[in-house]
Amino acid sequence: MVGDQIDTQRCPACGARLPEGFLPGPGGRPGARCGRCQALERHRFLALVLRAFGPFVSSAGLVLDVAPSRHTTHVLHELGARAIAMDFDPAADGRDVSVQASLTQVPLAAGSVDLMICYHVLEHVPDDAVAMAEIRRVLASDGLGLVQVPLDQHRPTVEDPGADAETRTRRFGQADHVRLYGWDVEDRLRAAGLDVLRLRCVDLVPPATRARYGLMEDEVTWLVRPAAEAPGRLLRAGDLGIARLDLLGRVDLAEPARRPVRPWHARMKGRVLRRLPQPVRRVLRKIVRGDSRPVRPADG
Ligand SMILES: C[S@@+](CC[C@H](N)C(=O)[O-])C[C@H]1O[C@@H](n2cnc3c(N)ncnc32)[C@H](O)[C@@H]1O
Ligand SMILES: [Zn+2]
Questions:
Q1: What's the whole-model pTM score?
Q2: Which residues, listed in sequence order, are joined to residue 194 by a DSSP beta bridge?
Q3: What was the pLDDT predicted at 237?
Q4: Which of 231, 241, 251, 230 is nearest to 272 (CA)?
Q5: What whole-number distance in Å separates Cα of residue 189 and Cα of residue 256?
Q6: In the chain, where are the structural domains located?
Q7: Nearest CA, atom 14, ligand 1
Q8: Higher-confidence position of 155 and 258
Q9: Residue 244: what are its φ and ψ, rounded to 5°?
Q10: Which ligand approaches the C-alpha of residue 23 most closely?
C-alpha cells in the first residue's frame, strides 16, 4: 500500500482524494466538508453504509429517498438503484425531487418500498409519530429504512412545535427544527412498529478508516424494518451473531479488490438474522470481521 493511500483523506461519497483534508463545515466544524462534493460527515457515513449494502440497494425494487442529498443520490445511481426522491418542498436546497409530498402522507402503496432513506427529516415534522407510521406502512415486510436525526446523546428528546424561530434555534439547533432527539428516538420508532438496529460508526469503522474518510466517532444511523408486532424491538449487532461489523472491506476505494478480510469466527445465527432479506444477510456475512477469504471484485 502506498504511503499517501494511508495518509491522504478520501471522500467515500465522491471518491475524491483530499491531500489538504476535509474543510470546515457548519459552524466552522473542522474536517466536516468534502471540498469536491460538499458531503458532510453524515453523508459520507451514509455513502459507506449504502455501498456496504450495495447488493441489497441494487436489487431493491423501489428505493424511496426522502429529502435526497445529492452527495448520496449519485451513490444510489452508481449502485443502479430504482429510486424515487421525495420532499414536500421541491426547492429545498436545490434538491432533485421527483415526488412532492410529505412524509406524513406518502403517496405510495403499503409495503411498496424496499429501502427508504430518511436523513434529517423527522426533526422538522411536528407529528413525527405520523411520519414514523408512514415509514412503517410503506416499507415492504422485508424492506429496510435508514433513518438519521440530529441526536443529543446526553438527554432525552426535547420538543416544542409551537415555539418561535428564535427559541427553536436556541433549543433545537435550527429555526426549522421542532425538536432535538435523544436516544429515546428509538422508542418512538419502535412504537411505530419498527425494529431498530443502531449502526454506530465507532462500532463499524476502525479508527484509521474513520480518519481517512473524515467520519465522526459518535455518528449513528438507524436501520429499521417492519416489526412482526408492535412495539418493535431494539436490535443489536449481537442479536445478529455479529461481534463486530467492519465496513472497510467493501468501501475502501483505494484497494477494493485486493484487501484481505479477517478470519471469520462468529456464526451468524438467530431468528433476527434469518428474518433479514437474503441479500442483506449475504452482505452482513461478508462484512463481518472474520472471513478469511480475500474480497473478490464480485463481492465488492
Ligand atoms: C436538513 S434537510 C435534510 C436533507 C438531507 N436528507 C441531508 O441529510 O442533508 C431537511 C429536508 O426535510 C424536508 N422536509 C421537512 N419536512 C418534511 C416532510 N414532512 N415531508 C418531506 N420532507 C420534509 C425539507 O424540505 C428539507 O428538504
Ligand atoms: Zn466528496
A1: 0.83
A2: 226
A3: 64
A4: 241
A5: 35
A6: 30-228
A7: 121
A8: 155
A9: -160, 135
A10: 2
Residue with cell 415486510: 141
Of the pLDDT bands very low, low, confident and very high (cuts 50, 70, 90), residue 262 is very low
- The ligand minimizing its distance to the Cα of 124 is 1
Residue whose CA lies nearest to ligand 1 atom number 25: 89
Look up residue 61 and give its amino acid.
G
The answer for residues whose C-beta is within 8 angstroms of residue 162's C-beta and 6 or more apart is none
Domain 30-228 indexed as CATH 3.30.565.10: no
Is pLDDT of 299 > 50? no
Contact between residue 10 and residue 253 where contact means Cβ atoms under 8 Å apart: yes
* C-alpha span between 226 and 235 (Å, rounded): 12
Q: Whose CA is nearest to atom 10 of ligand 1?
A: 121
Nearest of 241, 249, 296 to residue 52 by alpha carbon:
249
- 3-state SS, one letter per residue, for the chain: CCHHHHHCEECCCCCCEECCCCECCHHHCCCCECCCCCCCHHHHHHHHHHHHCHHHHHHCCCEEEECCCHHHHHHHHHCCCCEEEEECCCCHHHCCCCEECCCCCCCCCCCCEEEEEEECCHHHCCCHHHHHHHHHHHEEEEEEEEEECCECCCCCCEECCCCCHHHHHHHHCCCCCCEEECCCHHHHHHHCCEEEEEEEHHHHCCHHHHHHHCCCCCCEEEEEEECCCCCCCEECHHHHCCCCECCHHHHCCCCCCCCECCCECCCCCCHHHHHCCHHHHHHHHHHECECCCECCHHHC
Mean pLDDT of all residues in 143-147? 95
